[in-house]
Amino acid sequence: MSNFPQLIANGLVQGLFIAMAALAITLAFSIARFPNAATGDVMTAGAYTGLATQSATGSLILAGIVAIFTGAAISLAADRLVFRKLAGRAVVASLVASIGVAFVIRAVLGVTFGLSQLVYDIPLTRAKLYWGVRLTPLDLQVAGAVALALALVFGILHLTPIGRQMRAVADDRDLARVSGVRPERVMLALWMISGGVAGLAGMMLGIKTVVEPELGWSMLLPAFTAAILGGIGSPGGAVAAGLLLGVVQEMSTPFVGFNYKLAIAFAALLGVLLWRPSGLFGKREGVR
Amino acid sequence: MTTTSRRQFLQGAAAGAAVLSLPQLTFAQSAGVFRIGALNPITGSGSTFGTGMLKAIQAAADVVNAAGGAAGIKFEVISEDTQTSPQAGVLAAKKLLDVNKVQAVFGTWSSGVSLAVVPLTNDANVILMNTSGAPALSVPPANAKGLSFRFQATNDRFGRAFAEVCVKEGFKRPATMAFNNASGIGNADGFKKAWEGKGGKVVAGVVYEPNQTSYRSELQKVLDANPDVIVTGSYLQDTTIIMREWYQSGIPVKWILPGWAGSPDLVKAVTAPVVEGVISVDSVSNSGAESYKLYDAAYQKAMGKPGSSNVYAAMTWDMVITLALAIQSAGKTDTDSIKAHIRAVANPPGEEVFSYEAGLAALKAGKKINYQGASSALDFDEYGDVTPDFGVSFIEGGAINQKYVVKI
Amino acid sequence: MSAYLIAITILTLIYVLLALGLTLQFGLTGLINFGHVGFFAIGAYTSALLTLNGWPVGVGIVAAAVAAMLPALPIGYISLRLRDDYFAIVTLAFSEVVRIVVTNAREWTSGTQGLPGIARLYASLNGAASEWAVLGTILAVTLLAIWMITRIARSPFGRLIQAIRDNEVAVKALGKDPAWFKIQVLAVGAALAGIAGAFYAHYITYIVPDQFVPLVTFYAWMAITLGGASRISGAVVGSAILMVLLEGSRFVHDFLPMISDSAMASVRIGVVGLLLILCIVWRPQGLTGKRGDA
Amino acid sequence: MSLDIANITKNFGGMRVLDGVSLSVPTGSLFGLIGPNGAGKSTLFAAISGFQKQETGEVRLDGTRIDALTPHARARAGLVRTFQVPREFGHLTVRENLCAAAPNQTGESLLGLFFRPARVAREEAEIAAEAEEIMQRLRLTQVADQPARLLSGGQKKLLELGRALMLKPRFILLDEPFAGVNPVLIAEIAERIRDLNATGIGFLIIEHDLEALTRLTPYIAVLDRGRIIAEGAPDAVLADVQVREAYLGGAV
Question: Above 0.90 for ipTM, yes or no?
Fold first, then answer.
């Protein structure tokens, strides 16, 4: 018999990573209005610089900070050099350009760090049983770090002046401008937060798995799926949908086997979109 | 992708050859030179091995040339990257065959690339020597003309070796975990076939998708069947994650990994205590032979790593030596003559030789030889496949120690 | 030399067929299809499986076109309900589902073992003649496709799909249902991709699911982005540039020997990415387009 | 015979935007609809033309219920609308914009396109002639081969009207035909509308510019907070106290 509580736990752990990546995508979308395909490679960059920092200093905290700053810096640079120049153009221009940005980031990482796999030097510990569910301390630490990051992001969005401005701009840019918000500053802050989340997500993923050039790219499609499923532009929705996807994928395995996991995620996406075209938590949009 | 059209000028034999390599585009056909196309996975998923395979080909060609060539003919190596992709492999092979006019193609690594390239080499009537595992390469249509030689054990042979190890170690309840690609499934299926042929039963089997953040559910399903050993068809990256998650679960079980996964890189990635006692089965088993020592030294020099880190480089090394001996034996460089003499110089009977120089001397003395390769004894069956012996290593205190050899 | 150039030309033409579908779907109609490789894969597998079971290659190619068109119908219906960028992701997911299915429907497709020994076109001719014959056939098909899409673009149908691209709501207000037009456009592009897939399978003679990753879709997008999305010549020019970029890197080593072998893969992808960015930022209409093109 | 709207209601997120609107617009009439900002005029148009689903109520065209039809089916039935913000096909020329609007084209089916080329060519010639005539009537001939996105605001309004005419409609719903148009062109557009009305086409016109509208339409209705508060001849309606309150907050 399948151990469903364990599958749910496994799904939640995997969902955390999808959720972080989806959060980065949805944050960028909420203001820049396009799905940023470079997010995956920003994650990879965070994983590599975090790893380099950790092996140089031995400090994971420092590595996390470096990963966040790497992600933020790359995002800012990409906005300044590419995306800003495409503001006002069709969504697809930015989308295709973001694939170009992704390739350039990956090329730089490949030349700098090589193509072989690298790993974070983290001592492994045995799992413990919690109510019949086996979880490792690393799982809990990663979950804790993700929760902390999410709390931080939501704190910024909902408790700080710049966060309120971000939400205002995301809701209605013109209205926000009229009410004295300077979109430039908000855009900068938003790209930094989105990039920082991606950088940290990449490092977490790198700790959990192995660091290699396609680390983030292979995460991109599940993350897009979660971002859309949650209602793109809705940070809470992205996180919830990420966790949900992780759980649905794992729960499906006793029925469809392990090979159709990703297909199940896409089927879920399609089903939800046909039912609610704006996603689970998205605002409905109509033709005016 | 990389065109290293190198013409190598050898200057002087007494004081050691001074090799001058000039990057230049030379397409002209020149007499006294045999052009080898090195078609390796320099980039893509085979990139871990590709460059080493290429360097081994170049080093072996240097050995042949330093010894005066094969039947007086010098080898020239032209390299191309398959990108570990059939499409890029086909274009690369077309370029090698058509632009560079190579007379043999060496070192296609993944089965996909070999299967895509073999129709082209057959058409051009050129020998293809590969290191792929897919059974389809042995038989028509792939090997309709008998021009394809495989220096790697087939997936089935790997499976048989795994089964032998299970018998020897007294395992009763094996389970399998396979990466969802040709080689992963091939190994697991080969094992299942061999094990059930011995009357055993595989208690659980899982085929998993690549690029996951976790394989815990897959692992759990296999462990739920309460196996005493898990046999994998896996790669380094996924094995790294699986071994970590297994270790964290604390459930005792033994592991048998293919050599490319159970490598020093794995030990480095997961740390020694995690993989203590893991069994790694590898087709390079001629490590006691003199030919292996020659290869090892050359590889060490070219790559700065021990030869044991790249089983395929040993195979590509052997490709060059085998071809050179066959040409020496035939005295001609046309494909049919070479094909006819490959088994003559590599298979028994004959005087066992371990180096090109020794083989050359024996052939010149009119003796029948049996080249013993660095990668295996190198005896080709009717399909052009070798049956290497398998080295069985145990990971102990972080070191990979070969304990015994399995013959199948 | 010629066989290598023929090989490159054949693969370029296969990309042209893929890119032409996107020119029709995106350049003219505005549909963001990010799952083109899914139709390509369906075509390749359909023709490969039919011919491996004894059907003639001609039947395989026609069946490839038909089979690739089938999913266009449901996808077209979905497109009516979704925003552009959602549609992009949904089609991307569709192509991944195709890949997952051919990977795991082992009893039909032999999964990751792939299908070797797919019949070649004109296998009875000797080497060079057969290569030229294949090239001629693909060239003829490509020219036919170009003629067909040009004809469509200049017809009342073409006028209407461009109207849909410019303003879908206004088209509805004029008494026309965009749905059926979008479905037809998707189906035509899918059929071209299916035919391209069939030629690909019969040319490479070996197919395996790994060949049908989203990167192929992105390459086709790069081709129309570089060449110009709303012009038919853009698909041709863009595909040619793309192939020169991808294959040209083989020759880079002769001139830049300091780039290591393993760095080459990174350099290749970096150059493609950079070119894509530069083109979108500085020449949004592509190389063939005029300023103001859609 | 007429366009009849009965008891239409429509809610947006708890807000009642249309609250039981009923109107009867006779065939061939020139009917003006005015109302302050947010009165629900555009929503009413959207409900009549099918772009918004109403909660309750009926829409009849010449006695036939059309409120279950899709927008494009209503347009084909003879009820065509324009938009407040022009929705031109920006990359097509003015001529192509008009031709694209022609109904029942054989060349709009792929089969027809490739298998009945002669018929397509004949139809194209007919459509081109019609477009030419409409362009002349609307004085758009000079810009016939310009991309529509380069037109001025007023020209775009005329283009929208011209596209609607290509369908040979019985009724045209005009959404603010004078908005953003210079005064000279306003008079001209009004003149064109009157000409067309003389050929038997009915118009229901939303307009902000009361003066221009009342000069054009002999009959108007006033919508305020989702209800029709008055209708009749312009002079009488504008004298109505309720209307003055609605427009000017009663400060008259």
Answer: no
